[in-house]
Automatic annotation (TrEMBL), chain A:
GO molecular function, one term: transmembrane transporter activity
Membrane topology, from the record: Multi-pass membrane protein
Major location category of this protein: membrane
TM helices/strands, residue ranges: 32-52, 72-94, 106-129, 135-156, 168-197, 229-251, 263-296, 308-328
Subunit organization: The complex is composed of two ATP-binding proteins (LsrA), two transmembrane proteins (LsrC and LsrD) and a solute-binding protein (LsrB).
CDD domains on file: TM_PBP1_transp_AraH_like
Function: Part of the ABC transporter complex LsrABCD involved in autoinducer 2 (AI-2) import. Probably responsible for the translocation of the substrate across the membrane.
Location relative to the cell: Cell membrane
UniProt keyword Transferase, yes or no: no
InterPro entries assigned: ABC_transp_permease
Assigned GO CC terms: plasma membrane
Naturally occurring in which organism (per UniProt): Celeribacter neptunius
The name this protein goes by in its record: Autoinducer 2 import system permease protein LsrD
Domain of life: Bacteria
From TrEMBL, chain B:
Full protein name: Rhamnose ABC transporter membrane protein
UniProt keyword annotations, A-Z: Cell membrane, Membrane, Transmembrane, Transmembrane helix
UniProt-recorded Gene Ontology molecular function terms: transmembrane transporter activity
PANTHER family, A to Z: ABC TRANSPORTER PERMEASE PROTEIN YPHD-RELATED-RELATED, RIBOSE IMPORT PERMEASE PROTEIN RBSC
Transmembrane segments annotated in the record for this chain: 35-58, 65-83, 89-111, 118-138, 158-177, 184-203, 209-232, 244-277, 289-305
One Gene Ontology CC term in the entry: plasma membrane
Species of the source: Celeribacter neptunius
Length: 334, 325
């Protein structure tokens, strides 16, 4: 992996004429993705007569809003060279905690707060293990992936929590205006916040610096471990928020909730043009990737394709989007 | 002294302690016949952990082993249903081949396209499971559809140990030889220890990683047939999430996730440790729902332990050079 990287760096040539900003925009991963999104949109509207309907499209946004909330934080984490595979399990644990609080008779504010705080605590746990003990994040989060969901299984067994208060349903089932759902609004607000934080603040610069060269970042005065810890906290918090939305939308908690979602979140981030090796990527890319994945799953759903077949598509997308540019590069070199 | 400090010695101690604890309340758990049953039950985990060990050793990870197992197992079961006459040795060869092919797909993507192994195997994990669904439309292959010979093979008793257990023993011995006595085994260590140095010693890093994936896939395929035949059922979700147990067994067995450090004995003992916990839980009356959390906690504790142990290992081999600086 690192070997191939050095070879690539050695082969990188410096062009005689610098490309204009406009040409760069057209050639970028984001514009390519946008084209794909538009293509899928047009294909879908031909494939099914039910596609071009405001309410159906509004329903389709649920395919990606919860995942995208986590994907924003995950994008920052992956850019900084770490990864969190435990996010789906954090959703399960947060949802279980909310169920316990609900059964104890607390109202909606307490339930939501519990969900968010549980997510934050899980993120802090991952963060402490990675930054304080210096453990590799892949193994830590594979471990906590079992641990967090395992705790949900201990609490719930094969049972479920039902009977959330009706006000709680607002997060996952409510509408702000017309067909604009609460979740879509949260997604849009978060997209703006994350884009500003990553692309316009010192903190965002630090994230890129750490991902490109953590040692150099340390010597430029960036508190690498602290930034990474904050990113794990954020990812946990976003998983908690996604848990609030998902639990509210489903109206129940089972320990198997959101299983396998970590894969879709990572796919969304990678599809959005974030390098899995860290150091590069953008929030607009992740936003478009969220729409692409949402449109693909919605389109396949309208064509009655079962969920597990869609997961093949997701898996193939994940490998394909990384493989294709590399195949193209290999062909050009030879 | 070094013997006592080694990971294997600590694990053997931990396993004996665990057995003693369970035996203090339930002496029946440590009777020879029950220990054989526990070992046989852990055999699939041992076989898969050995394959995973080779992959992790070369700085990769294979999360697709459980899906590979399920797909190969399903193909074997479907062949048995359609052609009950196909003899078991042919099926075993087929399972090895199909598993190796799936491992080769992973390995090829890692080698030729230099895609990070975690991304490749996360992707192929879902693709392999999806293919099972495409093959079967989600239906099950049940015990009564399988031929008697198909189901009997892993349970066949030789010298008091079922064939399934013997296969784990044989795989352990073969890998022990490969790792310690062949150039390929040396290459695995070299690639994991320092890929740049490995290139200068004439080792093809990508090809070595490719072979590691082929070995892991081949063993997953073999386990696929054994698993389906032993439990006499095949469906989309068999061994779901088992890849985490396999990685856990390796990490507990002292395999460094950063590559370059692993022992066959460690991987086997790590698998046995998890297997004994899994079998002891129902005996000491703990709900099986605790299993997942315990596996997770074991991974975290083991990896913390690994990093502590690794830190004290460094020693100065050139004292004069150290002083000169």
């Amino acid at each position: 992996m690192s070997l191939a990287e050095t070879q690539q760096t050695a082969a990188r040539h410096i062009p005689d004429r610098l490309t204009t900003p406009l040409a760069r925009t057209f050639k970028s991963w984001e514009s390519l993705l946008l084209l794909v999104a538009i293509g899928i949109f047009i294909l879908n509207s031909f494939a099914s007569p039910y596609f071009l309907n405001a309410w159906n499209l509004s329903d389709a946004t649920f395919n990606f809003t919860e995942k995208a909330m986590i994907a924003f934080a995950m994008a920052l984490l992956i850019i900084a060279g770490e990864i969190d595979l435990s996010v789906a399990s954090i959703i399960a644990l947060s949802s279980t905690a909310m169920g316990v609080v609900m059964q104890a008779g607390f109202g909606t504010p307490a339930i939501v707060a519990t969900g968010l705080v549980t997510g934050l605590l899980c993120g802090a746990f991952n963060g402490v293990l990675v930054t304080r003990l210096g453990l590799p994040s892949i193994v830590v989060t594979i471990g906590t992936m079992s641990l967090f969901r395992g705790i949900s299984y201990i609490v719930l067994g094969d049972g479920a929590f039902r009977g959330y208060p009706s006000e709680f349903a607002w997060f996952g089932q409510g509408y702000v205006v017309w067909v604009i759902t609460v979740e879509l609004t949260i997604f849009a607000i978060l997209a703006v916040i994350y884009a500003v934080v990553l692309h316009k603040t010192n903190f965002g610069r630090a994230v890129y610096a750490i991902g490109n060269n953590a040692t150099a970042a340390t010597f430029s005065g960036i508190r690498v471990e602290r930034v990474k810890f904050i990113l794990f906290l954020l990812t946990g918090l976003m998983a908690g928020l996604a848990s609030v939305c998902l639990t509210s939308r489903l109206g129940s908690t089972r320990p198997s909730i959101a299983s396998g979602m970590e894969l879709e979140v990572v796919t969304m981030v990678v599809l959005g043009g974030v390098s899995i090796l860290g150091g590069s990527g953008s929030i607009p890319g992740v936003v478009i990737a969220a729409f692409v994945m949402g449109l693909v799953t919605f389109g396949l759903g309208l064509l009655n394709v079962p969920g597990i077949v869609m997961s093949i598509v997701v898996g193939a997308l994940l490998i394909g989007v990384i493989a294709l540019p590399r195949i193209y590069q290999n062909l050009r070199r030879s | 002294m070094t013997l006592l400090k080694s990971r294997e010695a600590i694990l053997v101690g931990a396993i004996l302690l665990l057995l003693a604890l369970v035996a203090s309340r339930f002496p029946g758990f440590v009777t020879p016949s029950n220990l054989v049953a526990v070992f046989t039950d852990t055999a699939p985990l041992i076989i898969l952990a050995l394959g995973q060990m080779v992959v992790i050793l070369t700085r990769s990870i294979d999360l697709s082993v459980a899906a590979n197992l399920a797909l190969t197992g399903m193909v074997c079961a479907l062949i048995n249903v359609s052609f009950p006459g196909v003899p078991v040795p042919v099926l075993v060869a087929l399972a090895l081949g199909l598993g190796a092919l799936m491992g080769a797909i992973n390995g090829f993507l890692v080698w030729k396209l230099t895609i990070p192994p975690i991304v490749v195997t996360l992707g192929t994990m879902t693709i392999f499971r999806g293919v099972i669904f495409l093959l079967t439309n989600g239906s099950w292959v049940n015990s009564h559809q399988m031929s008697a010979a198909f189901k009997a093979f892993p349970r066949e008793n030789i010298l008091g140990l079922p064939v399934l257990g013997w296969i784990a023993v044989i795989v352990t011995l073969i890998l022990g030889l490969v790792m310690s006595r062949t150039t390929l085994g040396r290459a695995f260590f070299a690639v994991g220890g320092n890929p740049h140095a490995a290139v200068y010693t004439g080792i093809n890093v990508g090809r070595t990683q490719f072979l590691a994936f082929v070995i892991s896939g081949m063993l997953a395929g073999l386990t696929g047939y054994l698993w389906v035949a032993r439990y006499a059922v095949a469906y989309v979700d068999i061994a779901g999430g088992f890849e985490l147990d396999v990685v856990a067994a390796c990490v507990i067995g002292g395999v460094s996730i950063a590559g370059g450090i692993a022992t066959v004995g460690g991987a086997v003992l790590g698998a046995l440790f998890l297997g004994i916990i899994k079998n002891a839980l129902p005996v000491i009356d703990v709900s099986p729902f605790w299993q997942l959390a315990i596996s997770g906690a074991a991974i975290i504790i083991a990896v913390t332990f690994n990093s502590r142990a690794g830190r004290s290992k460094g020693r100065v081999i050139l004292k004069s050079a150290e002083h000169a600086q």
